[in-house]
Amino acid sequence: MASKEYKQMIQRGKWLEKFLNPKLKSWGYKELALEFIDIYQVYFEFSKNDKSIEFLVEIEKKSEYYKCDGIISYNFDVRIQKALSIKQQINHVFQAIISTSKPWGYQFSEEKEMSSQEECNNKYELPELYNRLVKLMSVGEDGLEFKRAFSFGTTLSLVAVTGKSLYDFFPWDVAAARMFFDFLLLGGQEYFLFCKYCGNFSVIERKGRKKFCSDICKTRYRTSNLT
Ligand SMILES: [Zn+2]
Question: With a threshold of 0.90, does the pTM exceed it?
């Protein structure tokens, strides 16, 4: 019987698989946000009209941003930019993990040499984002209490500057970083691949020699190699 950790690992991997899919539609984003809130019992009021979603869907329709290595510069709110670049960052680190035989933690170690600014950003930003999801502390009868539900932490200095919470829309970067690390911490290193046909990140439920995300891609790959 599959262990609890295994099930959680696959669940988080599947979340990432959908999130990293370039064809994700707006209803898909909504499902992912609600699923995240449910899994982590996050204290966040998700609006069905969350404005990050329309931006993400629009931009993905127009560009191939995560396939190029260039620095993304869009004229949007910094949080929208983060929601976009987090996909590229996570894809990049997964690719790096696959391309070396080392344990995944190496990507975040002191000895890892950084060959680009992008790698440098990934190494430091992703763990920092993970820490933005914090337990809620409040004053209770017996002193300070931690509520079970988590909250998306805020950066005080930025709140002071803008005068409002950073999270008036769903913080995809924090959520994705949490899913990313939890997937790996639960043993995900040997349970993913990049499809040989479409290139998409895909979770596999059994370790092995699988090379495609689906039977459709497998067939298409074979057909295209016959002609
Ligand atoms: Zn595929």
Answer: no
